[in-house]
Target: Amino acid transporter transmembrane domain-containing protein
Amino acid sequence: MRPEEELTEPLIEYDKLRESALDMKKHESNSGQSSNSSDESCLLLDPHKPTHPTSNLDTLIHLLKGNIGTGILAMPDALKNAGLVLGTVALPILGLITTHCMHMLIDTAQLLRERFNTGPLGYADVVEAAFQAGPAPLKRFSTFARRILNIFLCITQLGFCCVYFVFVGTSNKQVCDRYLIDIDLHWHMAILLLPMIFLNLVRKLKYLAPISLFANFLQFGALAVIFVYLVKDLPDVSERKSFASWSTLPLYFGTAIYAFEGIGMVLPLQNNMKSPSDFGGCSGVLNTGMVIVTCLYTAVGFFGYLRYGDEVMGSITLNLPSGDL
Model:
């Protein structure tokens, strides 16, 4: 079977299900009976619709949680490598480019979905379909491209998870060493493994929304505490370098690009929405979330570097006074 036929196979099942649903509704209308299977017929009319769709607010919560990670704590260190003026100006530009790339991804997915007349496409599906819709010499590489992308996604997400485990484990160790018991860092990370496994067993984003909301509350609370320290005794802007040096500029871009880490979750979030069309658009969920993310990154980076200057560390939490813990 050719790759072009593989993508159109879901259309055959879709047509059969749709015809079955229409016949069911026509029979109900002619008989004048109120059927209890209206939900089933609606599902048949759109077999690709998620069984537990998320609202716009649920999606925004997940989008914020997926983009605001440990990278935001490294923004002051990033500005140290770029300079106060250049780093502050470049961060919104990078946020704009990232958001534009996300829009390109969802627009491409929609275009390929209409072209192949199939259901919602994931990240790897988009790559495979793009190769199949491209020049003839590239079509045979569609499966290979899909596998390569999945490998890269797994490596990327594994790297993110490793950073989170080390960061959370180190933070827990600092608290436990001061107030409870001094144990090795590896034990703290091992303790985190069990709840992480249970959380990853939840496959529906709708059910994860309350957990993400709780995590966002904790995260914004922590950022509020950090800002309390950052705005104390601020020096004059002229005391900080406007531009650092060309040699450290790649470190700035590396940290900033790492911080904008959420492009891999864009399509899954949109595909699980009750109203996927609300995800894009000028005032859609994506733009709203990314504006919040970019503003937070810029604010933490600006005030963190302004407050501590070249003494700022890889994570701004390391500059905070430990005695106030």
Remarks:
- The two ends are 63 Å apart (CA to CA).
- The chain has one domain: 54-324.
